[in-house]
Design brief:
The protein is of the alpha/beta class and 296 residues long. It contains 10 helices and 8 strands. The protein has one domain: Glycerol-3-phosphate (1)-acyltransferase (3-Layer(aba) Sandwich), CATH 3.40.1130. The radius of gyration is 20 Å and the shape is globular.
Length: 296
């Protein structure tokens, strides 16, 4: 990165910080009203207003990136998207910049993106409260050792997540899930002995958990592949500074098979194997696309 890139990145970060502080005022005000008024119809309306605030926050962040960072956007597959559907959005994950890319590409085109978050993240200053206000589902996953020690915990994580997802039934929502569970790196790739050239092994259980928790509400899959030509896995600072000159986003839309949200991944071996095959096929196609975008 050059000195100019560092200046640009700093300017964008300052702008995003000021935008966040400004938007926190209406966001938390609406959230407080929503908390105090136990009327479903009013809460639904307030939830939509909260989403509008969040989408405005994303629009301003994206404008800052377009004006200061100035990457060239090459996006394929936007046709047929709508804000009246429930989407499961999946993507390869290379850098924290991926989240800004996804927000910029899909803001206003599909329902507001929501992530399944670890319960501990609610403690993150400002953002934790914002995620809570926007009804992001907070998950508490129990390890096999914890369940063996306390059998009463079995199934509790799914029940908790399912209750959190009940709020999604009132209006269309997009749920984001990074199947790899972490950002790609060559060291992680080698450690996993991943069978894919450009991807880590997908964690199929998380996807099955998400679909089951949503009770079949998610019926459309958006399979996203993000490529940073000649940059591989750029840092967030490099992306904001304009060192990344081009971003390619490939969107593949397809229906989610009905059976994928109806099985018990943890206890039904036949369902688990079938689900793993489905996810593996998705990942093989994505890996092939990434290979086609790699320099010879």
């Amino acid at each position: 990165m050059t000195f100019l890139h560092k200046i640009r990145a700093s300017l964008v970060l300052i702008g995003i910080t000021l935008n966040t502080l400004a938007m926190a005022v209406p966001l938390f005000s609406l959230a407080l009203i929503k908390l105090l008024i136990p009327i479903t119809g009013v809460r639904i309306r307030l939830s939509k207003m909260l989403v509008w605030v969040a989408e405005s926050w994303i629009s301003i962040n994206s404008l800052l990136i377009d004006l200061i960072s100035r990457p060239r956007w090459c996006v394929e597959g936007l046709e047929g998207l709508g804000k009246d559907k429930w989407y499961l959005v999946i993507s390869n994950h290379q850098t924290w910049a991926d989240i800004l890319v996804l927000q910029r590409v899909f803001n206003g085109r599909i329902p507001f993106l929501k992530f399944f978050l670890k319960q501990e993240l609610i403690k993150v200053p400002i953002l934790g409260l914002a995620w809570w206000a926007l009804d992001f589902p907070f998950m508490k996953r129990y390890t096999r050792a914890e369940i063996e020690k306390n059998p009463e915990l079995k199934g509790k994580d799914l029940d908790t997540t399912r209750k959190a997802c009940e709020k999604f039934a009132h209006f269309p929502t997009s749920v984001m899930n990074f199947f790899e569970g972490t950002r790609f790196s060559r060291s992680k790739h080698n450690e996993q002995r991943s069978p894919y050239r450009h991807l880590l092994r997908p964690r199929a259980g998380g996807a099955a958990f998400t679909l089951n928790a949503m009770g079949g509400k998610l019926d459309t899959l958006l399979d996203i592949t993000i490529v940073y030509p000649r940059h591989g896995q750029p840092s967030m600072f490099a992306f904001l500074g304009g060192a990344v000159r081009e971003v390619r986003v490939f969107i593949r839309q397809q229906p989610i098979p009905a059976w994928a949200s109806q099985g018990d991944y943890e206890n039904d071996q036949q369902f688990r194997e079938r689900f793993q095959v489905w996810v593996s096929e998705l990942w093989q196609q994505k890996d092939g696309l990434l290979a086609s975008q790699s320099p010879a």
